[in-house]
Amino acid sequence: MRILIVEDDECIAKTLLSVLTNQHYTVDVASDGNLGWKLIKAFSYGLILTAKNSNTDKVERLEAGADDYVVKPFEFSELLARIRVLLRRRNLPIQTVLQWENLCLYTDSCEVTYNGNLLTLTPNEYPLLELFLRNRHQVFSRNDILDHLWSIEQAPKEDTVTAHIKGLRQKLSLAGTTNDCIERVYGIGYRLKETGFSTKNQSLKVQQKKKSKIKTALSELWQNLQSKTNERLAVLQQTATGLTLNELAEEQKQKGQATAHKLAGILGVFGLAEGSRLAKQIEQMFKLEMQRDQNTVFNLCHLVELLQQELNKPVFEEFDKAVLNFVEEEDSVK
Predict the structure, then answer these.
(1) Can you say whether the dihedral through the CA atoms of 274, 280, 282, 284 is positive or negative?
(2) What is the 8-class DSSP label of residue 199?
(3) Which residue, among 317, 78, 320, 323, has the nearest Cα to 214 in the 3D structure?
């Protein structure tokens, strides 16, 4: 599949290009909307990723026909999961009986049986089971389940989804299922368990190799981006100093806001959640008409100092978490 990335931040564009091409996608990159539009007219794209990320932008794109919309900052594991979800929506066959081992769900009568015995499910448990049976190899986060099964007005909290899953699993277990048919994929969500045999031991070595390869690639990318990241941190430090001296011009304020925005994006892509959160908070301070009082100066300088501390920390632990999520998500869709 061919993917177009429209992104003005070179760091994020390069990272997305590396991650997506590693997954065997054909990827084009446009640095602005004009070039992106020319590419859209020249090629047929399965997906288009844009830098626009306000709520208005999101609503406009969804109403225009977009299937999904991801805003920065985001993690690449989430992005890849969403891409695969969109691909699976195509050409789904119509089934009247959904089966897992001796468990059967009859879509025409809305009945569920195990070994021929009728199971009594609640109005929330039935569509939950149907979702897993229709999407055998897909991992659903709790938020994914909310999006699929509840309207905006009716959507409960994620903890409620967990309770529904627990109740469904208990009923299936009491009915006599030999294996827990709904399994948890750590750090991602839930899926229908594979029947017949467990692939855990067989895939362990392959998973470790993938993890090592991806971690090496990410580490190299991060090292290449260090100078740019340090430059952006220096801009924020200079901006904070200008605010302290009451010498912050409007142009400097806009530059500080743009710099914080880019840092939030790239740190989020690399799974550095705390650094991304701090940069986003700094960006929001610039978006507001800041009063240059002592509290504002102190808060901004403190945030910049915390961000510097985060960037000075070893990133390998965070890489381990991000890479593990990535590898587990990749294996779950095969």
Answers:
(1) negative
(2) -
(3) 323
DSSP code of 93?
A: P
Name the residue with tokens 């925005």. 261
**What CATH class has 2-71?**
alpha beta
Q: Considering the domain 97-196, what is its CATH architecture?
A: Orthogonal Bundle (1.10)
What is the residue-level pLDDT of the chain in tens, covering all 334 positions? 668 888 888 888 888 888 777 665 667 888 888 888 888 877 667 778 875 656 666 666 666 556 666 667 777 777 777 777 776 665 545 457 888 888 999 877 788 999 889 999 998 899 899 889 988 888 999 888 887 777 554 667 888 999 999 999 999 989 888 667 898 888 889 998 876 433 343 345 545 665 666 667 767 777 778 888 889 999 998 888 887 777 767 788 888 888 998 888 888 777 788 888 999 989 888 877 555 567 777 888 899 999 988 888 766 555 555 555 555 544 444 4
What pTM did the predictor assign?
Answer: 0.50
Q: What CATH architecture applies to the domain 202-325?
A: Up-down Bundle (1.20)
